[in-house]
Design goal:
Elements (H helix, E strand, L loop, with lengths): L1 H5 L2 H24 L11 H11 L1 H20 L4 H9 L1 H26 L4 H24 L3 H7 L7 H9 L1 H30 L5 H17 L1
Helix pairs in contact: 2-3, 2-4, 3-4, 3-6, 3-7, 3-10, 4-5, 4-6, 5-6, 6-7, 7-10
Length: 223
């Protein structure tokens, strides 16, 4: 029943719009260039929005799409960092890109679902901030498995791979993503409220509609 509800025409329309945003924003982020070594992940906002509006499954789908775009950008030479990792470790690179994005979307949706009944505003903020933490944390952990490539191509003399990943590579990007998501969380909360309200005013529940028809018929019969 939940899957049927998820794949309603309205949800598919929302998901399609957010998917287009994920693709466009990641391509724009890649073209803007790098703050450290990797491009900033502007896509985390639509991923969180999808996770909050439609649930963890939608967040996972959008995060997976984010990973696919990163991989393709690397393969086609738009993202030099990903290309170098992919050349030496194709399987690990693909797995890392897909897993970190998917996990960030699922974690955001799950946290919102757990916390929304207590405080919806706090749930949105938590979901928004969880995305960059999960995305960056998993990136660092996964990239450590490719230390040989990082040492050979990126790590300066006197640095360690861990220092490079945390400070040089992910540091500025994580700060950027964390601040952007923190600032965007009130807007995400507003969008969620508007969508939920409009959905509530939309098509009536079939049971309620049937009940109202029966009551109307009974009133007319009574007359």
């Amino acid at each position: 029943m939940r899957n049927n509800a998820f794949f309603s025409s309205k949800n598919i329309a929302y998901l399609a719009v957010l998917l287009a945003l994920v693709i466009a924003l990641q391509l724009v982020g890649t073209m803007i260039g790098n703050l450290g070594v990797t491009a900033p992940s502007l896509v985390l906002i639509p991923i969180v929005l999808g996770a909050v509006l439609l649930g963890p499954l939608a967040g996972g789908i959008l995060g997976f799409a984010f990973g696919v775009v990163v991989i393709l950008a690397g393969i086609f030479g738009m993202d030099k960092f990903t290309l170098i990792l992919f050349t030496d470790h194709p399987f690990l690179t693909v797995l890392l890109c897909l897993f970190k994005g998917t996990a960030a979307g699922v974690a955001s949706g799950w946290l919102f679902r757990v916390l929304q009944n207590r405080n919806r505003n706090a749930a949105v903020v938590t979901a928004s901030l969880a995305a960059p933490i999960v995305n960056t944390g998993l990136f660092i952990l996964g990239a450590l498995l490719m230390s040989d490539t990082l040492n050979a191509n990126f790590v300066a003399d006197g640095q360690t791979v861990l220092y490079f990943l945390i400070v040089v590579c992910a540091g500025l990007n994580f700060i950027f993503e964390f601040i952007i998501n923190a600032v965007a969380s009130p807007a995400i909360y507003t969008v969620v409220r508007v969508v939920k309200r409009s959905a509530g005013k939309g098509a009536a529940n079939p049971r309620e509609e049937k009940r109202s028809v029966v009551k109307k018929a009974e009133r007319e019969t009574g007359k």
